[in-house]
Amino acid sequence: MITDIKEGYVKVEHHHGITTIEFFHPQSNSLPGRLLEELTHAVHGAGNEKDTHVIILRSGGDKAFCAGASFDELLAIENAEQGFQFFSGFASLINAMRKCPKFIIARIHGKCVGGAVGVAAAADYAIAVEGADVKLSELAVGIGPFVVGPAVERKIGLAGFSSLAIDATMWRSAEWARRKGLYAELHAGIADMDEAIHRLSNNLLHSNPEAMTMMKEMFWKGTEHWDKLLTERAAVSGRLVLSPFTRNAIQKFRKK
Question: Is 196 a domain residue?
Fold first, then answer.
């Protein structure tokens, strides 16, 4: 199934117990609100599909895994309610991944920026390729990683999260991300990465579904308040995006 989106898509495929969710946007796989909504719907659907044992989340193309929020949509926000609705898209996706009863393997084939780091952190197991560097760029455009912060901090700890969030213009290498725990595995090339994903997903096909669901609940224990927390954080970002500082900063980034 392919859900067409203007200048982008979400594609869901199911084969022998493995559901693959792929998203794509021509602007470095950035995430406009509609794409976030469709991704959230796809994760919910796969999680509730009884024949799905494991989910693979990936993006299209061969460059960036995801460039995070869509600058075009950020600039189009006219009031706090619109800002809240946009950032709620990231909150909804992260919460959907968190509550999904199936393990989610993320295929990280390229760089992760901003909200994409949160998506990688919300996956249960991220497998990446060398060159899949990471950057939390939110502060550089006047916002701050409020919505994705809890997911990133949970995965790499407060020190690692603080480093990424404060030095918002500096790339951290994929090896740094692996050492911090954002990536569970790091491979030299695409073929090796895909082989690792194939191996793990097929092993999970033969594992006890009930045990995996209970394990996921155990791994995410202590995050039950995130529905409320991430909604509150979306409201903060929704207000900040309206500031003149943020408007000017986004315009400058957009021109690069």
Answer: no
| Degrees, nearest 5: CA angle 100-77-243 | 110
- Is the pLDDT at 189 greater than 80, yes or no? yes
The Cα–Cα gap between 115 and 112 comes to 8
Mean pLDDT score, 188-209 = 97
- Contacts of 202 by beta carbon, 8 Å cutoff, 6+ apart: 18
As a dihedral over the C-alpha atoms of residue 70, residue 73, residue 79, residue 83, rounded to 10 degrees, the angle is -30
CA 134, 136, 141 angle in degrees (round to 5)? 135
* CB count in 10 Å sphere of residue 207: 13
- Average pLDDT over every residue of 209-229: 98
Rg value, the chain, Cα: 17
Domain extent for 179: 2-190+222-255
Predicted confidence at residue 255, as pLDDT, reads 66
Question: In the chain, what percentage of residues exceed pLDDT 90?
Answer: 90
Task: Specify the 3-state DSSP secondary structure of 136.
Answer: coil
Give me the DSSP letters along 150-189.
HHHHHHHHHHHHHHHHHSTT--B-HHHHHHHTS-SEEESS
Whether residue 205 is contained in a domain is answered as: no
Would you say residue 158 lies in a domain? yes
Quote the pTM value: 0.95
- Cα–Cα distance, 105 to 77 (Å, whole number): 33
Average pLDDT, stretch 68-77? 89
* 138 token code pair: 């939110």
